Amino acid sequence: MKAAFKGPNGISFKDVGTRALKPDEIRLKVNACGICGTDLHSDPGNKNESRFGHEMAGTILELGSAVKNLSVGQKVAIDSSSACGHCSQCKNGQQELCTNVQCIFTNMQLGFAEEIVAPAISAVPFSGISDAVASLQEPLGVSIDMVRLTDIGLNSNVLLMGAGPIGLMAVALAKRQGARKIFVCQRKRRKARCQIALDWGADAIIDPEELEKYDFKCDINRIMVTSAPDTIGTAAKIACKGGIITFIGLGFGEKEKISLEGNAFHFKKLQLRASFASPAMFGPMAIEYLEKKIIDGERLISHTYPLADLAKGMETAAKDLDAVKVVINC
Questions:
Q1: Are residues 67 and 132 in the same domain?
Q2: In this structure, which long-range contacts are made by residues 302-310, counting pairs with CB atoms below 8 Å and at least 24 apart in sequence?
Q3: Is residue 287 part of a domain?
């Protein structure tokens, strides 16, 4: 079975063995796996080669002996991680704080491969949409969680910083929540992303160099940050009194650091909330939104490549200004 590995010397393919399933696992034929921003940005301190890819959908090939609610041949998307349902946090109604997360990263059975083994609890069935669209389930779940944490409502004036696929879906969701105004900070040379943002509810696109001096003509009380953590300080300067800032972005080195004016943050009574998809949340809701075209998944997918051309797909995702979401057909 062929699987892709990423390391300091780029991407390589290897034949890897398959193992017997544990009772609570499934074997999946991976049909599609999306390229996430985290796949593009490697930790410079990591010199090891490893499998990668976590936004996947495919067809069940085999069931573990204890799996009863799924069937061979069924189409499913895979959550990158799932709450166990048994720990004290889960039983206290706080699944997002699960202490025994069931995760595909545990055994590094990751998605740029012909097959994977995954926890059965992470499978989310779908129908009526393509595998490529279904692979958006994982990032859409992140968008849903970020919008939830941002507490967007009818009186919200929203700023999104970073209009990647997760941010664009968050724009559509914020509009659906009834946000009064939505502004998107994104480099205008990314014309495809800017146009989707406008079509999905944004009132204006702001270039990052213009952000701190931009006249919003309203108080910005909700900010969603999908750019690197070092931009959160700018978000705190823009947010009005009582504002909520959420973020999901990662960074390394200096981009990992958050610099805040503590007194101003305190006097404005700001809140900073982190969204992290471990465990992933809202998978069935994400699939429903894609099936009902509440989120137009086809609109987001700008490029597709076969698994053999994964390196080309990665280059497109990183450098092509017209790229929005790149999906690999495995």
A1: yes
A2: 302/192, 302/326, 303/327, 304/132, 304/328, 304/329, 305/329, 307/2, 307/4, 307/112, 307/113, 307/114, 308/13, 310/4, 310/11, 310/112
A3: no
Question: 């991976």: which residue's tokens?
Answer: 30
Q: Which value, in Å, is the radius of gyration of the alpha carbons in the chain?
A: 20
* DSSP per-residue string spanning 113-132: BSEEEEEGGGEEE--SS-HH
- Measured CA to CA, the distance from residue 300 to residue 211 in angstroms comes to 25
Q: Which domain holds residue 216?
A: 140-274
- Domain count within the chain: 2
200 in any annotated domain = yes
How many distinct helices (H) and strands (E) make up the chain? Answer: 11, 18
Q: How many CB atoms lie within 10 A of CB 3?
A: 24
Q: Any idea which residues carry the catalytic annotation?
A: 38, 41
Which residue did the predictor score with more confidence, 131 or 255? Answer: 131
> Do residue 84 and residue 160 come from a single domain?
no
Rounded distance between C-alpha atoms, residue 83 and residue 101, angstroms: 5
State the CB neighbour count (10 A cutoff) for residue 58: 27
Interval 153-182 mean pLDDT: 97
Residue-wise pLDDT tens digits, 186-204: 999 999 999 999 999 999 9
Helix, strand or coil, per DSSP, at residue 199: helix
Cite the beta strand spans of 35-146 per DSSP E: 50-51, 55-63, 75-78, 81-82, 102-103, 115-119, 123-125
Residues in the chain: 330
